[in-house]
Structure formats: structure tokens, C-alpha cells
């Protein structure tokens, strides 16, 4: 079974991964991807989920999961991952 939990950020307060990705991708590409992820997550209705393995390219698993954690911390809406981090779900309407 696929386990993507290793991509969970160690801390939401450590944003060194952001600088690493900006260096790798370029600033515009990073923020464009971030906006795309946030826009998609905002569209989820209560009870809906995203299968990460089906909807995210394997090379983007790490970035998607880290951005999803940032999204949850910024929006304070009830979202979360399953233990393997293969499913991201919106639990309730807030």
C-alpha cells in the first residue's frame, strides 16, 4: 500500500522547504502551483476528498502535501489526510 506520510512537513513553522522549492522551480512556478492547489482545495465540499495518488503527479507528492498542510493552517477549515496521506478530505462546512 502506498504511504505518502513521509512528505508531511516536520513543522508548520519551518518554511525552509518553501525556499528549497522556489530555488528548484522558480518563484513564479512555485506560487502558480500553490494557487492551483489552494483553488482546488477550496472547491471541495463537505465529505469530498482528493485521492492524492490519482490526482497528483508522483513528482509533486511532496510539494502538494506540504502545501495542503499550509492551506489547512491558513484557512482553519476542517480538512485532513488519512494516516497514509493518500486521501485529503474536507470534513465539514465551516
Topology:
Elements: H1 16-25, H2 27-42, E1 49-51, H3 52-55, H4 61-75, E2 79-81, E3 87-90
Antiparallel strand pairs: 1-3, 2-3
Question: Count of helices?
Answer: 4
The main pleated sheet reads as: 3 strands, antiparallel
The portion of residues assigned to helices is: 40-55%
Strand order of the largest sheet: 1-3-2
List segments where confidence is low: pLDDT < 50 over at least 5 consecutive residues.
Answer: none
Description:
The termini are far apart. The chain has 94 residues and is mainly alpha-helical. It has one domain. It has a three-stranded antiparallel sheet with strand order 1-3-2. The protein is globular, with a radius of gyration of 13 Å. It contains four helices and three strands, in the order ααβααββ. The model has no long low-confidence stretch (mean pLDDT 93).
Please provide a brief summary of the model.
With 94 residues, this protein is mainly α.
Characteristic key phrases:
single chain, 94 residues, mainly alpha, three-stranded antiparallel β-sheet, 4 helices, 3 strands, 48% helix, globular
Amino acid at each position: 500500500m502506498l504511504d505518502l506520510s513521509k512528505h508531511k512537513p516536520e513543522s508548520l513553522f519551518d518554511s525552509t522547504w518553501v525556499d528549497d522549492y522556489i530555488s528548484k522551480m522558480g518563484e513564479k512556478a512555485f506560487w502558480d502551483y500553490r494557487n492551483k492547489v489552494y483553488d482546488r482545495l477550496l472547491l471541495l465540499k463537505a465529505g469530498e476528498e482528493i485521492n492524492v495518488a490519482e490526482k497528483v503527479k508522483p513528482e509533486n507528492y511532496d510539494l502538494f502535501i506540504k502545501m495542503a498542510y499550509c492551506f489547512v493552517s491558513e484557512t482553519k477549515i476542517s480538512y485532513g489526510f488519512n494516516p497514509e496521506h493518500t486521501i485529503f478530505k474536507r470534513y465539514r462546512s465551516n
